[in-house]
Amino acid sequence: MSTTDNNNINNTGVSSLGNCSDMRHYNDYGDLKELIRSSGLKFDMARIDKAYRYAYEAHKDQRRVSGLPYILHPVSVAYILVGLGMDTDSIIAALLHDVVEDTEITLDEISKDFGSDIALLIDGLTKLAKIKYSNREEQQAENLRKMLIAMSNDIRVIIIKLADRLHNMRTIECMREQKRRDIALETMEVYAPIAHRLGITAVKEEMEDLSLRYLDPVGYAEIEAELNKTAGDRESFIADLKAEILDRSRDVIDDIYISGRVKSIHSIYRKTFMKGKTIDEIYDIFAVRVIVNTMTDCYNVLGIIHDIYKPIPNRFKDYISTPKPNMYQSLHTTVISHRGIPFEVQIRTWDMHHTAEYGIAAHWKYKAGVGGKDGDSLDEHLSWVRKILETQKDSVDATDLVSTIKTDLNPNEVFVFTPKGDVINLPAGSTVIDLAYAIHSAVGNSMVGAKVDRRIVPIDYPLKTGEIVEILTQKEAQGPKRDWLKIVRTSEARSKIRSWFKKERREENIAEGKAEFERELKKNGINIPENELEDFLKKVNLKIQVNTLDDFYAAIGYGGIQLWKIMPRIRDLYQKLYVKPNTEYVPPVPAEAPKRKKVGSGVIVEGMDDVLIKFSRCCNPVPGDDIIGFITRGYGVSIHNRNCKNVPRDITSAEEPDRWVSAHWEHSVREVFQTSLEIIGMDRTGFLADVSNQLSAMHIMIRTLNCRELPDGMAIINVTIDVTDTGHLKTVIARLNTISGITSVTRK
Ligand code: MN
Question: I need a labelling partner for 331 at 20 to 30 A (CA). Which of 629, 673, 684, 702 fits?
């Protein structure tokens, strides 16, 4: 008797359980025939009838745990497969899938009666059914390996197996509790990821929701209750959206289908419990799906939707031009409804929709219906399986395979084991520190090291799927290190570390924050008298409540205030309040110096006319530089050099990416620009004079000039000058380099 099927006739505990014998979970042969008729696809009904009679006879005396006739199970599995668009052979194999395993009939007999193709499918399924699930890794590895091999031989084996597992999950209520949890865990960890990788979303989502119900019944019930509470509101909300979109697209798009839905409980669960968000913080609980006939219409609909509702920046994803690895295609965007509720919109064609829902199975639909082969896309699906098997060919260790397959199934996550065998999953790239904090903040805070597969690893060790990780803790541990904030990957770990520092180390935070702030001020040439500093900071919009200077330093210390974010504001305010005609040495303006033109800044900011432009002082960009604009709060757009340290390397993952705008130089405008140079050379008599003479000789306007001694007999001159572009600047630097004793001239 198969151990993965809930077909053992075992009544323990059944009486207390709910509705597993509910006929809504089953389909009889009449239902199946009706679905086949209405599917519009071609099936060989004579062969299907024969298989049904055969299976009916074979299972005649058997019952499910629920007490219902056993035959209802294979028929229900076949029903799921017709829904997925699978072919006659798959339906027959589904009807017969437990016959060899659970009755006297042999594979040879099946082969004689239904042909070798069907016999091969059943053989594959029977072999899969023999695998016992166990928490032990090697068992699981063997399980996966067999599935992969079956997949590469005939992918239909896996699709039938998925349908079989899905039906067992629907009727799992009849099992004993421990068994339910075991099966649910295996479904969540192995079967749902395979369904996902094959793009069979409908099956994947149902499996995840069903599994979650048994793996975390409390969490599941909580979300379900929350959703039920708001069900009425939600329905009217979605009805309004549909009406608004339909109304606007009627004249433009011929044929449009709109449906609204709530995301699966499992996906809400992941976002609430695993990412620590509350239900109202999740943007895409509501999803509206728009299906049209052509790809052009997809983009038209997108335009209409962005016109009706305000899009949330950086939530737009074009999976039409760049499909996901499982061939999923759609446009995704998140917009804000007129009621202020954000919702996600998915836009796709019917073809894309079938691929999205049924994945690889969708390609069978065409094959069966039209008779043509959809070989290319099938091969694409299968190449993934083959690749894994190939890389594993020489490997004797089956657990390697588990790592490979699991990582490949979900590249954004890693699964690791605690020494007790608990599975913890984390975002890819997570370190042992992330794991420690995922277990408990107390574990993280008392962590002194970690072992991976029984070997000590560095604290920034990135975890890989399948590893067994032990966190080493000590009661008298000193607590987290500040450096950890730069190492950790998860926001959970980061915020737990910050809150530790906030609570435990105020004095240290103040000292650390003060030192860091002073360094930063010095670097920026900002000099504010100590007794004015507190008042000055009150004028800077800091976003978090800071009452005293110590609060401010402490916040820098524990990371609540990030200096790189506020320094531009501090610099601006400092310029406004302190930098009037200042005490720096400003040489007299030469008579022939060109006047700074007032018209135009020489910069064009994309999508903005007539905008106030200013050049940031951190990098003083000059024409020819690659530049970018930053929309300041109330001071127009500040232009930075692309290489400036204040420009994030990757704008899309920056804190406020939508405030960065593209900008370029307007070539027609000749203007002068300020730039700063640092000149280092031997501190000899006349060094400063030589530099300023050389600049005057080139008719360079000097804005500021400072000179100071360096300890080793050298001197450093900081000079701010006007140049017209990078070419001009190069000439200036080259000329300065000819002065005797100069060792370097660099732009700051
Ligand atoms: Mn079965």
Answer: 629
CA distance linking residue 28 with residue 44, whole number of Å:
19
Q: Which of 98, 102, 182, 512 is catalytic?
A: 102
Going from the Cα of 74 to the center of ligand 1, the distance in angstroms, rounded, reads: 6
User: In angstroms, how far is CA 304 from the centroid of its own chain?
Assistant: 27
> Which residues have C-beta within 8 Å of that of residue 582, sequence separation ≥ 6?
none
Residue 367 has what pLDDT?
41
User: Which ranges constitute the DSSP H helices of 594-711?
Assistant: 687-697
| 412-493 shares the fold of 229-363 | no
Could you tell me if 563 and 520 are in contact, meaning their C-beta atoms sit under 8 angstroms apart?
Answer: yes
β-pair type (317-318, 331-336): antiparallel
CB atoms within 10 A of CB 571: 21
What are the residue ranges spanned by the domains of the chain? 3-174, 229-363, 412-493, 505-578, 595-665, 675-747
Tokens 């720096």 sit at which residue?
A: 584
Output the CATH code of domain 229-363: 3.30.460.10
Per-residue pLDDT at 389 exceeds 60: no
Strand order in the sheet with 660-665: 603-605, 660-665, 627-631, 637-641, 613-615
Q: Which of 89, 101, 297, 512 is catalytic?
A: 101
d(C-alpha 404, C-alpha 400), whole Å: 6
Q: Is the pLDDT of residue 7 over 60?
A: no
**Contacts (Cβ under 8 Å, ≥6 apart) of 571:** 524, 526, 617, 618
Q: Ligand 1 centroid to 4 CA: how many Å?
A: 8
Match 């996902």 to its residue by tokens: 196
Say how many Å lie between the CA of residue 270 and the centre of ligand 1. Answer: 29
Determine the pLDDT at residue 9: 29
CATH of the structural domain 3-174, one choice from 3.30.70.560, 1.20.120.790, 1.10.3210.10, 2.60.200.40:
1.10.3210.10
Of residues 74 and 608, which shows the higher confidence score?
A: 74
% of the chain at pLDDT higher than 70: 79
Average pLDDT, the chain: 78
Q: Domain 412-493 has what CATH class?
A: alpha beta
Q: What is the C-alpha to C-alpha distance for residues 332 and 344, in angstroms, rounded to an integer?
A: 7
Q: Choose among 87, 194, 207, 208: nearest CA to 146.
A: 194
Tell me, in angstroms, the distance from the centre of ligand 1 to residue 5's CA: 5
Indicate the range of 284-293, 530-539, 683-692 predicted with least confidence: 683-692
Residue 70 near residue 95 (C-beta atoms within 8 A): no
pLDDT at 370: 32
> What is the distance in A from the centroid of ligand 1 to the CA of 97?
6
- Does the annotation count 516 as an active-site position? no
Amino acid sitting at position 126: T
**What integer pLDDT is reported at residue 634 of this predicted model?**
62
3-state SS, residue 706 = strand
| pLDDT tens sequence across 626-655 | 888 887 766 677 888 888 877 887 777 777
Global pTM value: 0.49
Both structure tokens of 416: 């690791």
Q: Which tens digits make up the pLDDT trace of 429-475?
A: 899 999 999 989 899 999 999 998 778 888 889 888 667 788 999 88
Decide if 22 is catalytic.
no
* d(CA 259, ligand 1 centre) in Å: 33
Q: Region 545-557: what's the mean pLDDT?
A: 82
At residue 347, the pLDDT reads: 95
Domain 675-747 superfamily per CATH: ACT domain (3.30.70.260)
By C-alpha distance, which of 697, 707, 709 is closest to 735?
Answer: 697
Q: How many CA atoms lie within 13 A of 206 on its CB side?
A: 15
Neighbours of 42 (CB within 10 A): 13
- Give 746's strand partners: 678
